[in-house]
Amino acid sequence: DTAVSQTPKYLVTQMGNDKSIKCEQNLGHDTMYWYKQDSKKFLKIMFSYNNKELIINETVPNRFSPKSPDKAHLNLHINSLELGDSAVYFCASSQSRESYEQYFGPGTRLTVT
Amino acid sequence: GENVEQHPSTLSVQEGDSAVIKCTYSDSASNYFPWYKQELGKRPQLIIDIRSNVGEKKDQRIAVTLNKTAKHFSLHITETQPEDSAVYFCAASRGTYKYIFGTGTRLKVLA
After folding, report:
1. Looking at the complex, does the CB of residue A55 fall below 8 Å from at least one CB of chain B?
2. How many other β-carbons are positioned within 10 Å of the β-carbon of residue B74?
3. Contact B110, B16 (CB under 8 A)
4. How does pLDDT run across A25-82, given as a tens digit for each residue?
5. Contact (Cβ atoms closer than 8 angstroms) between residue A89 and residue A107
6. Interface residue B98 vs chain A (CB under 8 A)
7. In whole angstroms, what is the distance from residue A52 CA to residue A42 CA?
């Protein structure tokens, strides 16, 4: 019954590795987002897709690549992980035409050692 | 560029007292202002929002006020309870998909 789900919940990996985080929403929304929340709790938008089309692409290193295979899924692939990538990554979704409310997933805590 | 300032960064109140958190935004085209509550280790969740054509909105113990001229909006929580303890985020959006979040306020309600 989960509205926005993410896997994995925790991810511990070494510098230089490549990893992916997956997100799925069953709300029928057409817009999905990735946010990064750093150790100071600051929430910053990274990417957004609307109907599988990239509409927001903030200043994020090229090592981060989002992919949206369909409206219900938005994945985040990170190459060559660095210590500074350690954070909690939240996926979110919204129904663009009816409401601006964004529904957040449970988050993925990424730790790079 | 777009910016949302949020104050205070931490706030401690006695149970039953009121709490006020203030935000200032820079983009005058912003027209949607949500407030999110994030409990420890949990996801941010919307608690109240306001659109630019409204000056105030209330939902039980929480209310939000908006001053478009001054580009200020505030969250008011009355009769605070221990379960109100969390980090609160304001955000501003110009009706597109992009939220600009404030830096968060850690509220502690002391029993």
Report:
1. yes
2. 19
3. no
4. 999 998 999 999 998 889 999 999 988 888 888 888 999 999 999 999 999 999 999 9
5. yes
6. yes
7. 27
